[in-house]
Predict the structure.
Amino acid sequence: MTTLAIIGGTGLSELAAFNPTRRETVDTPYGKPSTDFLIGEIQNKSVVFLARHGNPHAIPPHKINYRANIWALKHLGVQDIIAVAAVGGITSEMVPAHLAIPDQIIDYTYSREHTFFDGEDGNVTHIDFTYPYSQKLRAALITAAASANLQVSPIGTYGCTQGPRLETAAEIARMERDGCDLVGMTGMPEANLAKELGLNYAALAVMANWGAGKTAGEITMAEIEENLHHGMANAAILLQAFMAAY
Ligand code: HPA
């Protein structure tokens, strides 16, 4: 039975040590997921892999069908999700190519289909979201990082912006005052949708760049790609160690 899913973000559209043996197309009541689900094994444990932005990488963060992706994972029997995400660093620890396991979220997104509990069935449902990430999966990721000798920030607040544009310097300064340590565009509503369906969800964030205004000059795609190249290689090592102990 397949219980673990890895959602790959920018820079992780495939995993080197993963040889999928099956490909599943899933139709959902919410429309089509980003792409087919690849099913195989890592360290002899069953894994479902989904490329969040599609394959090829073509769906911008605000157009991802998060509801279809999460519904389909539940339908495939998944219980635990590790969401890999490229992010910008805000606070001093979050240097380019660094890894973080966030423990909190602030949601700045708007006009996304963000809930399974939209009231269509005549019910009003509120979920607890005090701790948006699974403490069990976070602890396992932190342990895996230590066993692989990788430096990670074991906590951090993920600020999720709407995108696809990057932020202004003033927006990043405001996010820092709000308490955000890192900024990305895909963490929400992915995290709350997983929680709404009772799935365990944790994020592995990879710093692609300093947030806007944190360095002189503009943020370039070349710089993002270079940092992700290093950061995602470490993320893949961490995932191997995580799967070995899973
Ligand atoms: N802002 C938002 N999302 C991001 C960034 C950023 O600077 N870098 C990578 N994803």
About this structure: The chain has one domain: 4-118+130-245. The first helix runs from residue 66 to 75. The chain has a mean pLDDT of 95.
